[in-house]
């Protein structure tokens, strides 16, 4: 007898968990199938170094987009801590840097002046007043059915501001607003996280990325999850289980039929609705496989060495695979490194986002180099120290010893650089490029501060886009499951079904997207899960 559920959720990422909690609380029978042996997807904490009691946020690390409404509705025990320092950016090749201190406007203005960018200090305040205005107008709508473009524009109520952030390349706006190479670069990075785009991006993919980085919580702040990202996932998992959702891990889904038959590990279950927490690209393959087995044919599968890693359902001719563009490096250090810039306290520099070799000109040159097939030199990167704000992720012994974690997110390392046969060598090259970039702003080599784990290895781990594809089934290592979409519907987009109004529709009425690939879904937000659950409960 085939088991029947109201809802089967494919994938137990934090969005799948969010959907499961809402739907089970509403009395639906819910089964969650996860291919890994644990839940959380890209929002997990892990003991990354053998025998060392440090639980690092292995992939995602900061929270901005998770609405208070979801925390309240699901009564999640999640604590987020605000960082005092927004960012520190050394001026490349010098011993000076720009420190943006949220707690001291006068000190920030002095810091702009000290790098010869006093006018940009004034422009900075005004520019971010504008992004805050957009955040206050748009973020509260993220947990409601989508506005249309015209409605969103009216909600913002400032046509010049709307045009500068939505209608024309945000890179052009940045170049017109700021004149200093460092200041321009710091602002631009928000348009490039997980997005391979030039400084001035006519496709506006950079604008969409920028928007998601400045509207979270209605303020654009990026907060530290106390206990690491695993604490967020843990709270969602507890809520879903307490409400009665059933979980099966080690359960890899291999096909989904449009009428709701889901096959995992050779077992079929039937669902009133299927919620896909997997990327749309992966879902397409699972449904294609379901349709082929219904027809008794095999899906047409083509593997291309240049683009395909281990997405286990293969690549089907004719579809575009998303591309990620970052390298993530986690480090555990004996202490914070000394900086070249002796005027700034390392605790302040590492307390916010530390931008390295991310000036406007460097970002442009890095994009050109990566587009031409090379690892950029220097590699633009940003780092953040979790343990400064939240030492609970370290054992008491490590804390007492002064140990600190560092998370590095390197930009412009697109998936196209990877040849699967030379993957280990490229990972080494990217790791070397990240360390060299870091060392260019430090007063001592970072390598000297690494600890040694129980197996005798230095405490550093590096994840390429292909590593993410293999571990998490993120196509092309794209951290958002695919290109980000606007947080509103085009005026002429269909809106007749609840799934369309909530931005979670697929071409099959019984199958909804509930992950990062939903409209408004990218990042650690729970929005994909919340919005798919709302569509089901409304529809
Ligand atoms: C390196 C990195 C850094 C990031 N940094 C941040 C950050 O600081 N802040 C932020 O907001 N966002 C960040 N992101 C993005 C964010 O983590 C993701 O967008 C978000 O976690 C996606 O959540 P999800 O639940 O939609 O999907 P996922 O977390 O991708 O979960 C999908 C789940 O589906 C499972 N699955 C896949 N295929 C199958 C199958 N066939 N059968 C069963 N299960 C399957 C996977 O194993 C996984 O558990 C980062 C991402 C990465 C990778």
Query: Mean of residue pLDDT?
Result: 95
Kindly report how far apart the N and C termini lie. 28 Å
Computed over alpha carbons, the radius of gyration is 23 Å
Query: What fraction of the residues are assigned to beta strands by DSSP?
Result: 15-25%
Helix content: 25-40%
Cofactors, ions, other ligands: flavin-adenine dinucleotide
Principal-axis shape: globular
Q: Biggest sheet: strands, sense, closure?
A: 7 strands, mixed
Question: What structural class do you assign from the helix and strand content?
Answer: alpha/beta
Number of helices: 19
Low-confidence stretches: 300-318
Total beta-strand segments: 18
What does this protein look like?
With 539 residues, the chain is an alpha/beta fold. Helix content is 35%, strand content 16%. It is built from 19 helices and 18 strands. It has helices at residues 14-25, 68-73, 105-114, 118-138, 149-156, 159-167, 170-177, 181-188, 205-214, 229-242, 280-295, 346-349, 360-371, 386-389, 396-401, 423-439, 465-472, 498-502, 527-538, and strands spanning 3-10, 30-34, 45-47, 55-57, 80-81, 85-90, 97-101, 224-225, 246-249, 253-256, 261-264, 267-276, 327-333, 353-356, 381-384, 404-410, 460-463, 511-513. A hairpin with a 7-residue loop joins strand 3 and strand 4 (55-57). Helix 1 runs parallel beside helix 19, helix 3 (105-114) crosses helix 4 and helix 8 (181-188) packs across helix 13. The two termini are 28 Å apart. It binds flavin-adenine dinucleotide (FAD).
């Amino acid at each position: 007898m085939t088991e029947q559920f109201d809802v089967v959720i494919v994938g137990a990422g934090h969005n799948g968990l969010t959907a499961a909690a809402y739907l089970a609380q509403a009395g639906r029978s819910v089964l969650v199938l996860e291919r890994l042996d644990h839940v959380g997807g890209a929002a997990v904490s892990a003991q990354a170094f053998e025998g060392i009691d440090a639980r690092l946020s292995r992939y995602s690390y900061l929270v901005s987009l998770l609405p208070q409404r979801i925390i309240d509705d699901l009564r999640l025990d999640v604590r987020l801590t605000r960082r005092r320092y927004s960012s520190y950016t050394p001026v490349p090749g010098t011993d000076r840097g720009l420190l943006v201190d949220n707690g001291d406007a006068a000190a920030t203005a002095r810091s702009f002046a000290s790098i010869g960018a006093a006018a940009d200090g004034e422009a900075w305040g005004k520019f971010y007043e504008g992004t805050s205005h957009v955040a206050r107008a748009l973020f509260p709508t993220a947990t409601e059915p989508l506005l249309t473009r015209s409605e969103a524009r009216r909600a913002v109520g400032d046509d010049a501001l709307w045009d500068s952030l939505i209608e024309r390349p945000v890179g052009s706006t940045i170049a017109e607003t700021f004149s200093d190479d460092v200041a321009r670069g710091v602002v631009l990075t928000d348009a490039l996280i997980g997005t391979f785009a030039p400084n001035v991006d006519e496709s506006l993919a950079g604008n969409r990325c920028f928007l998601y980085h400045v509207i979270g919580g209605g303020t654009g702040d990026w907060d530290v999850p106390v206990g690491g990202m695993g604490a967020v996932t843990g709270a969602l998992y507890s809520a879903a289980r307490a409400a009665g959702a059933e979980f099966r891990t080690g359960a890899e889904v291999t096909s989904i039929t449009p009428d709701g038959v889901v096959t995992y590990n050779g077992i079929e279950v039937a669902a009133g609705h299927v919620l896909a927490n997997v990327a749309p690209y992966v879902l397409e393959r699972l449904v294609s496989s379901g349709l082929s087995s219904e027809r008794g044919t095999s899906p047409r599968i083509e593997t291309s060495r240049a683009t395909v890693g281990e997405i286990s359902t293969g690549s089907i001719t004719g579809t575009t695979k998303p591309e990620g563009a970052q390298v993530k490096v986690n480090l555990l250090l004996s202490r914070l490194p000394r900086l070249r810039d002796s005027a700034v306290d390392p605790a302040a520099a590492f307390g916010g986002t530390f931008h390295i070799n991310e000036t406007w000109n460097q970002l442009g040159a890095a994009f050109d180099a990566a587009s031409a097939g090379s690892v950029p030199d220097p590699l633009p990167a940003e780092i953040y120290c979790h343990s400064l704000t939240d030492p609970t992720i370290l054992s008491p012994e490590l804390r007492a010893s002064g140990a600190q974690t560092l998370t590095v997110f390197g930009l412009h390392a697109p998936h196209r650089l990877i040849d699967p046969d030379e993957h280990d060598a490229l990972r080494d090259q990217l790791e070397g490029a990240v360390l060299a970039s870091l060392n260019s702003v430090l007063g001592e080599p970072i390598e000297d501060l690494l600890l040694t784990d129980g197996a005798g290895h230095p405490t550093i781990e590096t994840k390429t886009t292909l590593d993410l594809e293999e571990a998490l089934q993120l196509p092309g290592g794209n951290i958002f499951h695919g290109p980000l979409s606007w947080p509103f519907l085009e005026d002429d987009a269909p809106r007749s079904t609840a799934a369309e109004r909530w931005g979670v529709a697929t071409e099959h009425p019984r199958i909804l997207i509930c992950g990062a690939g939903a409209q408004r879904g990218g990042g650690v937000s729970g929005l994909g899960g919340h919005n798919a659950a709302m569509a089901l409960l409304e529809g």
